[in-house]
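fyi for ur records
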Amino acid sequence: MLRIFTRVQLTYLGIFVLISAGLWAYEAIFVWPAQKCEAAGAWWNPRDHECDTPLEIWRFTGRTPHLTPPPSAPAAAAGPPAAAAPSRSATPAQSGH
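which gave:
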């Protein structure tokens, strides 16, 4: 009896469908959430499958970040640098050799 699909062809088709569904499920469970999380600027935790928000250390220690120099800093440090005086390097004629 001649059939359009033989048993072997149906087996190969079934294997193809299972592999395709498995790859799609892997992408949907592991890859797409990680890409979405990283695109939002967060950190992806692959062990727990969590999208974690990075925290600055000052938020849970209570110490404020120092964005400006402390008021005890010398005022000269904030100004433009002074012009360097030309240095006098010894030439071989002046060194006495």
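The chain has a mean pLDDT of 79. thats all i got for now
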